[in-house]
Write a structure and sequence with these properties.
This protein has a single domain, classed as TIM Barrel (Alpha-Beta Barrel), CATH 3.20.20.140. The radius of gyration is 19 Å and the shape is globular. The chain has 13 helices and 13 strands. Helix content is 36%, strand content 16%. The longest helix is centred in the middle third of the chain and has 16 residues. The strands form three sheets. An eight-stranded parallel sheet has the order 2-3-4-5-6-7-8-9. The protein is of the alpha/beta class and 349 residues long. Bound molecules: N-carbamoyl-L-aspartate (NCD) and zinc ion. N-carbamoyl-L-aspartate binds next to loops.
Length: 349
Amino acid sequence: MDLTIRIPRPDDWHVHLRDGAMLEAVVGYTARRFRYAMIMPNLNPPIATTELADQYRQRILRAAGNQSPEFQPLMTVYCSTNLDQDDLIRGHEAGIVKAVKYYPAGATTNSDHGGDNILNFIDLFETMADQKIPLLVHAESTNPEIDLFDREAAFLEQELHPLCEQVPNLQVTVEHVSTSAGVDFALAHQRVAASVTPHHLAKNSSDLMAPEFDPDLFCKPIINSEADRQAIVSAVTSGNPSFFLGTDSAPHPTSEKYGEEAKAGIFNAAYGLEVVAEIFAKENKIKYFSSFASKNGAAFYGYEPSQDELQLTREQVDVELASTLSTRDGDKVVLFGRDEASHWTVSPI
Ligand code: NCD
Ligand code: ZN
């Protein structure tokens, strides 16, 4: 199937850019394609104040250079017991801080400073609702007695649903939704939306586990069953405004992916857009691709879509694409989505 589409320059509503040599190596992939990028704060130490967010924003812009005039990092701060509400309000009013990110402690990479229970932060969330500051949630239970594949559903039921009942005006994003329970949750709650990754749309738990565990597909929340994947695909390809692209691009050096304990995270900034386009094309729903990639998230966060455009062309020619990148420190990172990207061209890039 050959086709060409033009979409407003997309936004990435969930991305990890890291810092230092890794930031320098990865930021161009995001900056060349995306307009806005919601930047995750899970550095070590975390981005927990307006000042740290502002400094990090400047490091990102410096590393991106001036090759991408539309690119704008939107900064988030890390929710912990140390978060200062006055600082948050000032940072938000100054336009530096766009949202707060909640991590359950221990759920994922650099989440040690996160919360034990989201309901402990009700006071902060009431302030955020008053100030119209969105809450971005890593929705995953850390209870070891709950099966890994059931942890999103458990968190939604036990923590996020009660929170939404108690603070109904709070704007909430269920990040990187990975199950049909997550889809249903976003559909059932009026002020709740969900970001969706290329890898949760394209892969299932059998891809992750068989014939053997594949560290390149290991991320949190874990890639779930084929039935879950299908529920997510059908939600996003329906054009429903509660779903938008957040790549959760999360680079880790191969030394840490293939080490004793695989680090959770998939680097998909390079080819994630092609992976998503391929899903929409295969489902015969390419007409809704721009809603998902360029419009729904912008509307949810109060922005107009970009005036600039990207063109995506699918052709039956297979191009040989890079499978890794290297940092100036000599680390390598695997690029997710090479197969899908091999028959798409994205321009201008
Ligand atoms: C992310 C990372 O590496 O920072 N990892 C991941 O598996 N998604 C953190 C996160 O978003 O959970
Ligand atoms: Zn993430």
